[in-house]
Write a structure and sequence with these properties.
Helix content: over 70%
Strand order of the largest sheet: 1-3-2
Structural class: mainly alpha
Strand content: under 5%
Radius of gyration: 28 Å
Number of domains: 2
Distance between the termini: 94 Å
Largest sheet: 3 strands, antiparallel
Order of helices and strands: HHHHHHHEHHEEH
Number of helices: 10
Number of strands: 3
Protein backbone atom coordinates (compact mmCIF):
# COMPACT_ATOMS: atom_id res chain seq x y z
CA UNK A 1 0.00 0.00 0.00
CA UNK A 2 2.78 2.40 0.97
CA UNK A 3 4.73 1.50 -2.18
CA UNK A 4 1.66 2.10 -4.35
CA UNK A 5 1.05 5.45 -2.63
CA UNK A 6 4.67 6.52 -3.14
CA UNK A 7 4.62 5.41 -6.80
CA UNK A 8 1.34 7.27 -7.40
CA UNK A 9 2.81 10.36 -5.74
CA UNK A 10 5.92 10.17 -7.94
CA UNK A 11 3.75 9.77 -11.05
CA UNK A 12 1.67 12.77 -9.94
CA UNK A 13 4.80 14.89 -9.41
CA UNK A 14 6.16 13.85 -12.82
CA UNK A 15 2.87 14.77 -14.50
CA UNK A 16 2.79 18.08 -12.63
CA UNK A 17 6.34 18.88 -13.75
CA UNK A 18 5.40 18.04 -17.34
CA UNK A 19 2.30 20.25 -17.16
CA UNK A 20 4.26 23.16 -15.66
CA UNK A 21 6.89 22.77 -18.41
CA UNK A 22 4.16 22.79 -21.08
CA UNK A 23 2.58 25.91 -19.55
CA UNK A 24 5.94 27.70 -19.39
CA UNK A 25 6.73 26.80 -23.02
CA UNK A 26 3.29 27.99 -24.11
CA UNK A 27 3.72 31.20 -22.14
CA UNK A 28 7.09 32.02 -23.70
CA UNK A 29 5.73 31.17 -27.16
CA UNK A 30 2.90 33.67 -26.61
CA UNK A 31 5.33 36.26 -25.24
CA UNK A 32 7.49 35.83 -28.33
CA UNK A 33 4.50 36.46 -30.61
CA UNK A 34 3.48 39.52 -28.58
CA UNK A 35 7.02 40.95 -28.68
CA UNK A 36 6.96 40.56 -32.48
CA UNK A 37 3.64 42.42 -32.56
CA UNK A 38 5.18 45.25 -30.52
CA UNK A 39 8.11 45.45 -32.97
CA UNK A 40 5.65 45.63 -35.89
CA UNK A 41 3.59 48.29 -34.14
CA UNK A 42 6.59 50.39 -33.17
CA UNK A 43 6.61 51.85 -36.71
CA UNK A 44 3.00 52.94 -37.28
CA UNK A 45 3.84 54.95 -40.42
CA UNK A 46 4.44 51.70 -42.32
CA UNK A 47 1.63 49.73 -40.67
CA UNK A 48 -1.27 52.14 -40.33
CA UNK A 49 -4.00 49.51 -39.99
CA UNK A 50 -2.00 47.42 -37.51
CA UNK A 51 -1.00 50.37 -35.34
CA UNK A 52 -4.60 51.57 -35.22
CA UNK A 53 -6.51 48.36 -34.44
CA UNK A 54 -4.24 45.47 -33.48
CA UNK A 55 -3.70 46.47 -29.86
CA UNK A 56 -7.50 46.50 -29.40
CA UNK A 57 -7.77 43.02 -30.96
CA UNK A 58 -4.96 41.78 -28.68
CA UNK A 59 -6.77 43.19 -25.64
CA UNK A 60 -10.00 41.42 -26.66
CA UNK A 61 -8.19 38.09 -27.17
CA UNK A 62 -6.62 38.39 -23.72
CA UNK A 63 -9.95 39.19 -22.07
CA UNK A 64 -11.65 36.23 -23.84
CA UNK A 65 -8.91 33.85 -22.63
CA UNK A 66 -9.23 35.21 -19.06
CA UNK A 67 -13.02 34.81 -19.04
CA UNK A 68 -12.74 31.29 -20.53
CA UNK A 69 -10.31 30.36 -17.72
CA UNK A 70 -12.89 31.31 -15.05
CA UNK A 71 -15.36 28.69 -16.35
CA UNK A 72 -15.26 25.60 -14.11
CA UNK A 73 -12.82 24.00 -13.57
CA UNK A 74 -10.90 27.23 -12.95
CA UNK A 75 -7.63 27.24 -14.92
CA UNK A 76 -5.23 29.60 -13.13
CA UNK A 77 -2.45 29.44 -15.74
CA UNK A 78 -4.83 30.12 -18.61
CA UNK A 79 -6.21 33.07 -16.62
CA UNK A 80 -2.68 34.41 -16.04
CA UNK A 81 -1.81 34.10 -19.75
CA UNK A 82 -4.98 36.03 -20.63
CA UNK A 83 -4.03 38.80 -18.19
CA UNK A 84 -0.49 38.96 -19.64
CA UNK A 85 -1.91 39.37 -23.16
CA UNK A 86 -4.15 42.21 -21.93
CA UNK A 87 -1.15 43.90 -20.28
CA UNK A 88 0.84 43.65 -23.51
CA UNK A 89 -2.00 45.36 -25.36
CA UNK A 90 -1.72 48.23 -22.85
CA UNK A 91 2.00 48.52 -23.64
CA UNK A 92 1.21 48.56 -27.37
CA UNK A 93 -1.38 51.32 -26.92
CA UNK A 94 1.17 53.34 -24.88
CA UNK A 95 3.71 53.03 -27.70
CA UNK A 96 1.07 54.16 -30.19
CA UNK A 97 0.08 57.23 -28.15
CA UNK A 98 3.76 58.18 -27.64
CA UNK A 99 4.34 57.98 -31.41
CA UNK A 100 1.33 60.23 -32.04
CA UNK A 101 2.59 62.82 -29.54
CA UNK A 102 5.98 62.89 -31.28
CA UNK A 103 4.29 63.82 -34.56
CA UNK A 104 2.79 66.93 -32.96
CA UNK A 105 5.41 69.66 -32.88
CA UNK A 106 3.87 71.90 -30.25
CA UNK A 107 3.99 70.83 -26.60
CA UNK A 108 0.67 70.57 -24.80
CA UNK A 109 1.16 69.98 -21.09
CA UNK A 110 3.24 66.90 -21.78
CA UNK A 111 4.15 66.48 -18.13
CA UNK A 112 0.63 65.39 -17.15
CA UNK A 113 0.15 62.97 -20.05
CA UNK A 114 3.61 61.45 -19.63
CA UNK A 115 2.97 60.71 -15.95
CA UNK A 116 -0.16 58.74 -16.82
CA UNK A 117 1.56 56.73 -19.57
CA UNK A 118 4.67 56.02 -17.50
CA UNK A 119 2.57 54.70 -14.59
CA UNK A 120 0.51 52.48 -16.90
CA UNK A 121 3.59 51.15 -18.69
CA UNK A 122 5.51 50.60 -15.44
CA UNK A 123 2.59 48.77 -13.80
CA UNK A 124 2.15 46.57 -16.87
CA UNK A 125 5.86 45.68 -17.05
CA UNK A 126 6.08 44.95 -13.30
CA UNK A 127 2.95 42.79 -13.42
CA UNK A 128 4.17 40.81 -16.45
CA UNK A 129 7.58 40.21 -14.82
CA UNK A 130 6.00 39.07 -11.54
CA UNK A 131 3.52 36.80 -13.34
CA UNK A 132 6.34 35.11 -15.26
CA UNK A 133 8.37 34.69 -12.05
CA UNK A 134 5.35 33.23 -10.21
CA UNK A 135 4.76 30.73 -13.03
CA UNK A 136 8.39 29.63 -13.03
CA UNK A 137 8.77 29.23 -9.24
CA UNK A 138 5.06 28.56 -8.47
CA UNK A 139 4.80 31.14 -5.68
CA UNK A 140 1.15 31.98 -4.91
CA UNK A 141 1.99 35.15 -2.97
CA UNK A 142 3.88 36.60 -5.94
CA UNK A 143 1.09 35.44 -8.26
CA UNK A 144 -1.65 37.21 -6.27
CA UNK A 145 0.47 40.35 -5.92
CA UNK A 146 1.16 40.36 -9.68
CA UNK A 147 -2.55 39.89 -10.43
CA UNK A 148 -3.36 42.82 -8.14
CA UNK A 149 -0.92 45.09 -10.01
CA UNK A 150 -2.22 43.73 -13.32
CA UNK A 151 -5.79 44.69 -12.43
CA UNK A 152 -4.64 48.19 -11.41
CA UNK A 153 -2.91 48.58 -14.78
CA UNK A 154 -5.97 47.31 -16.68
CA UNK A 155 -8.31 49.62 -14.73
CA UNK A 156 -5.99 52.58 -15.47
CA UNK A 157 -6.20 51.67 -19.14
CA UNK A 158 -10.00 51.33 -19.13
CA UNK A 159 -10.53 54.63 -17.33
CA UNK A 160 -9.49 57.22 -19.86
CA UNK A 161 -7.49 59.42 -17.51
CA UNK A 162 -6.34 61.74 -20.29
CA UNK A 163 -8.59 64.82 -20.27
CA UNK A 164 -10.96 65.15 -23.23
CA UNK A 165 -10.12 68.84 -23.62
CA UNK A 166 -6.46 67.92 -24.02
CA UNK A 167 -7.32 65.36 -26.71
CA UNK A 168 -9.40 67.95 -28.56
CA UNK A 169 -6.62 70.54 -28.33
CA UNK A 170 -4.05 67.99 -29.55
CA UNK A 171 -6.17 67.12 -32.59
CA UNK A 172 -6.71 70.81 -33.32
CA UNK A 173 -2.97 71.54 -33.27
CA UNK A 174 -2.35 68.52 -35.50
CA UNK A 175 -4.94 69.87 -37.98
CA UNK A 176 -3.44 73.39 -37.91
CA UNK A 177 0.02 71.91 -38.51
CA UNK A 178 -1.31 70.10 -41.61
CA UNK A 179 -2.99 73.30 -42.81
CA UNK A 180 0.23 75.30 -42.45
CA UNK A 181 2.14 72.67 -44.41
CA UNK A 182 -0.51 72.68 -47.15
CA UNK A 183 -0.44 76.51 -47.45
CA UNK A 184 3.36 76.58 -47.45
CA UNK A 185 3.57 74.01 -50.25
CA UNK A 186 0.94 75.69 -52.43
CA UNK A 187 3.12 78.46 -53.83
CA UNK A 188 1.63 78.88 -57.31
CA UNK A 189 2.60 81.90 -59.40
CA UNK A 190 0.45 85.03 -58.95
CA UNK A 191 -1.47 83.35 -56.12
CA UNK A 192 -2.78 85.67 -53.40
CA UNK A 193 -3.35 84.83 -49.76
CA UNK A 194 -7.11 84.79 -50.41
CA UNK A 195 -6.56 82.24 -53.20
CA UNK A 196 -4.63 80.11 -50.73
CA UNK A 197 -7.47 80.42 -48.22
CA UNK A 198 -9.98 79.22 -50.82
CA UNK A 199 -7.77 76.23 -51.69
CA UNK A 200 -7.43 75.50 -47.98
CA UNK A 201 -11.21 75.48 -47.49
CA UNK A 202 -11.61 73.18 -50.52
CA UNK A 203 -9.01 70.82 -49.11
CA UNK A 204 -10.25 70.66 -45.49
CA UNK A 205 -14.01 71.16 -46.24
CA UNK A 206 -14.71 73.17 -43.08
CA UNK A 207 -12.37 75.75 -41.56
CA UNK A 208 -12.85 77.79 -38.38
CA UNK A 209 -11.94 81.47 -38.17
CA UNK A 210 -9.49 80.74 -35.34
CA UNK A 211 -7.73 78.23 -37.63
CA UNK A 212 -7.44 80.87 -40.38
CA UNK A 213 -5.85 83.33 -37.92
CA UNK A 214 -3.38 80.63 -36.78
CA UNK A 215 -2.41 79.47 -40.28
CA UNK A 216 -2.05 82.91 -41.91
CA UNK A 217 -0.93 84.79 -38.77
CA UNK A 218 -3.61 87.45 -39.14
CA UNK A 219 -6.23 89.02 -36.87
CA UNK A 220 -9.79 87.73 -36.53
CA UNK A 221 -11.11 90.85 -38.29
CA UNK A 222 -8.78 90.25 -41.24
CA UNK A 223 -9.87 86.59 -41.42
CA UNK A 224 -13.54 87.67 -41.53
CA UNK A 225 -12.71 90.21 -44.26
CA UNK A 226 -11.05 87.54 -46.43
CA UNK A 227 -13.95 85.15 -45.86
CA UNK A 228 -16.47 87.85 -46.87
CA UNK A 229 -14.59 88.49 -50.12
CA UNK A 230 -14.86 84.79 -50.96
CA UNK A 231 -18.54 84.80 -49.97
CA UNK A 232 -19.22 87.79 -52.26
CA UNK A 233 -17.76 85.80 -55.15
CA UNK A 234 -20.06 82.91 -54.16
CA UNK A 235 -17.13 80.60 -53.51
CA UNK A 236 -17.77 79.88 -49.84
CA UNK A 237 -20.58 80.12 -47.30
CA UNK A 238 -20.65 80.84 -43.58
CA UNK A 239 -21.78 78.21 -41.08
CA UNK A 240 -23.28 79.35 -37.78
CA UNK A 241 -23.32 76.32 -35.45
CA UNK A 242 -25.52 76.24 -32.33
CA UNK A 243 -22.41 75.77 -30.23
CA UNK A 244 -18.88 76.75 -31.13
CA UNK A 245 -17.34 79.35 -33.37
CA UNK A 246 -18.05 80.51 -36.91
CA UNK A 247 -16.91 78.22 -39.73
CA UNK A 248 -16.66 78.54 -43.50
CA UNK A 249 -17.02 75.90 -46.21
CA UNK A 250 -17.14 75.75 -49.99
CA UNK A 251 -20.50 76.15 -51.68
CA UNK A 252 -21.92 72.87 -52.95
CA UNK A 253 -21.84 73.97 -56.60
CA UNK A 254 -18.13 74.87 -56.35
CA UNK A 255 -17.25 71.76 -54.37
CA UNK A 256 -18.63 69.40 -56.99
CA UNK A 257 -16.76 71.06 -59.85
Amino acid sequence: MIKEGVSNLLIGIALLDTLILVYIKSLFFLLGILILLIIILSNPSKNRFLSKDLYKITYCIGSIISVAAIVKPFKIWMFVIGIIIMLFSILISSLKSKHERKNIKKKIKKENTNKINISKTANALIAISLLIVSMVISDKKILYFALFIAFISIILNLINVKPKKLDKKTKNISKISKMKTYVRLSNAKYETEIDKLYKLVKKFEKVKLSEITEVFKISKEKAEEWAKILEEHELIEFLYPTFGELEIKCKESNNTQ
